[in-house]
Amino acid sequence: MNRAFLRLVAEDIQQRYGKDISDIAVVFNNKRPITYLKKHLVDVYQQAIWSPQFFTIQEFFSLSTTKVQASPISQFFYLYELHNELLAKEGVEPETLEEFYPIAEIILSDFSQLDYDLVDIAQIFMELSDTTEIELAFQHFTPEQQAFIRQFWQSFSVQGHTGVQKRFLRLWRRLPTLYKAFKERLQTEGQTNFPTIYRYLAEGKAENKTFVDQFQQVLFVGFNALNRAEAKLFREWQEQGKALFYFDADSHYLDDKLQEAGLFIRRNIFQTGLLNALGDVPNVIGNRADDVHVYQSLGKISETKLLYDLLSENQDQSKSSAILLADESMLVPLLQSLPYTDVNITTGYPLIQSPIYGLLDLWMNVQVLISQQHKEKIPYQLLETYLTNPMSKVSKKQKQQIQTESADKQLFEVEVKEIDISQSVLPHFFRKLQSAEQTIPTLSAMIDSLLLSLADNDRIRQIESNLLMETKKVLNQLQLGFSNLGKLSIGFQIGLIRKALGPISSAIEGNPLKGLQIMGLLESRCLNFDQVYILGANEGILPKTSNSPTFLPNNLRKAYGLPVLENQDALSAYLFYRHFQYSSDIHLFYNAVVSESSSGEESRFIKQLEFETKFNFVKHTQQQPLTFPTQPQELVIEKTGEVWNKLYGSYIKHGKRISASAFTSYLQSPLQFFLKYVADIKEPPSISQEFEMNKLGTVIHESMEELLAPLKAVDDFVATESLKAKLEIADQVVLKQIGNEYLTSFNTVNELNSLQRIMHKIATEYVKMYLQYDIDQYQAIRIVELENSDDYILDFPIEINGSIETVTLYGIIDRVDEVLTKDGQTKLRIVDYKTGADSVTFRNLDVVFAANTENKALVQTLFYAYVYEQVTGLRNLEPHLYVARRMREDGTVFKNNNGSFVLSDQTLAEQKEVFVAFLKSTLEELFDQQVPFKHNPDAAVYPSDPFTLFYKYSVKESAVED
Q1: pLDDT for res 161
Q2: What's the whole-model pTM score?
Q3: SUPFAM superfamilies given for it (predicted)?
């Protein structure tokens, strides 16, 4: 492997200057290489010496002024005020803060670029109308540059400007004046910014023009793409003997004029005339024939998983290693996939991907919502989001209490004043702001509370504290800006706060000389590592296919020599290629899935190197794992050990009851019976956004009981005409029962939420339908029993392991009545109400009295009838099913599909005996240790079934045999 670039620099410094280096300045593009060069100097000198002075380029140039740096937020507010002043002079309505924020970002970026490249502001924004003006104004430009300018102005013909063009031209004319006013405002405030420092230095206007003289010599290390200001100053300082330049390059791309990776260094050396202190550059890339591993993954997350496997198996701790993110959005999934924690991360961890932002954004959503309401309510999801955010630290007890109460009441919306989160970090989180002026102070107070919370729990993590402090700085700057703008609404402030918080990020600092280093490609300048892993090496990402937003069209940028997309490509190529000069172990990962955000192709830089060099590119393709098990991994619960002890002990020894629902659950799916009734797995409380049929059924049952209860007190028949009075009060009774179901008292339908109103409408119609059916079909009725869940319990003998044991059955009897038909006959009936898709029809009883029963309602109703008859001694109880959807068409008596077989009279008596035998054999199977609990694959599985995951691999017996 070639020696590290900074090692070569350290050796050259020793050779040139010996020990006398304390008055030398060493300047880098960023801070990261400083630590590494210090380490190499220690290794080279092998003794204590006075260190040179280290700077980033911006720190170095800032020595030329005493003015304070204006923060980005301050610059925005200056620009905003000045721009609106210009609009007022033009008689145009002022822009709002939110409208102007994205425009301001582009304007400031363009102003910066023009300063860095020393472009004449008045000239570039000159308004031209014809070719003659261009030739006169730009005589010193080349014909090619003049052609670019003509192309730009030809797109704005004198006639027929579109609305967008007119708006652009108005802004275009305004920008020179705005630029001048902006610079004057910075001067007035005693402030400056880096672009101004660069321009003033290059144009000889700096406060301290000779600040370079305080150093014996200035060493500029690892620079690549220079703007015009840097190029001019570097050349002047070189001519004065004050500057020395160390370029990190390889002749493979430097000597080949078609190689974009060498574009800027060729320009620095051959056009600007800067001399490379290291002399001629070697051709390392062209002479290497090492293996380079390229991994094709099936998605971004898969890239990090592949890397995890690689690091787990092959990482050599004795070698320096770095993960370089061509796609920096992969930082969070990468952090979740690292096999160890000894890492140093300088790629900024973005605030918007942290739980902190989740909490702040939630608060802003809540305040915008309740500030627009007369009665402060929020959707339950917002409360749930607060409860589950790790930064809120709601106590477990209070969290469970809120969730359970909300689920019981099915609170889709929650009144803010009723939210009790006193046992959390931010107990006043949902309190409504009393005035718009409290917006930022309240957010700042929240940040203070979060910082205290982290300290109290002894787990301050640098990333969290850094993000919180950076956020507070931005908020303080916004508050200063807002103070000069009069009264602003809450929503208006929050819109701008969101934009201002977006760019915040924090480095995760570790030891830069030890462990795994994680950084973006740009941050890897000057640095070399033995092992390099590059994530996101996709075309479209490396290099990027888009430029930053600008008001300077591409033609003008080319005319004035400003950076264009090709420059960005050249920089990306250089940052990528240079690692092939030094690293001995290179691994490249790219996403092969084609999507809106992915081309699905490896970077063209990989293909170029593969074509041009002797490197051996070893391709690894991730395949979707395909398994062909000889037997599906079905969940089967054997009735042994603890399972059998629980089943036998609960139902036989301790008399746990088996209901009709439990019995039909076993018929549908023995595995579901085990999960619900043996393992006692319960569903967690939840707020459903869908209509819940079980709650509708409860409301209907309770409403029918309340309406018919007065009739139960009457021993004799009552004319069904009397039920008409019940129709009049049905809606109020249903309203009351909905209130009972949701643990709330409702006085009017208007107090119900949207889903409750739907429930009220459906339940009322069903109840009226049931009542009207009785009025239409019968002369009189006598209520014998209503909704009795206490008295109907039956000991039922079955055989278990050769012995007779007793299992306890019980039924909740919805209704038992005696009716007088229109032709004068009386019938004793057991009635079950159904709100779902149940039916009174069936194909034949062989598929009813069977596993995965075809008609669950019939089995349940016969179950109720059997228990009732055995407990009371009554006989000839006829089962009836009230299914609101089909009552008028199908009636309420069970029958086969064509109506030729009806369960009544003698037929019913015979089938009751068949049912009892079926009941006995099924229960004996339930307690047969040789028959395990397993899911019936033919059973219908509903989307709302919470146990769906357990059925996933269930298969038919024949499939297993095959």
Answers
A1: 57
A2: 0.69
A3: P-loop containing nucleoside triphosphate hydrolases, Restriction endonuclease-like
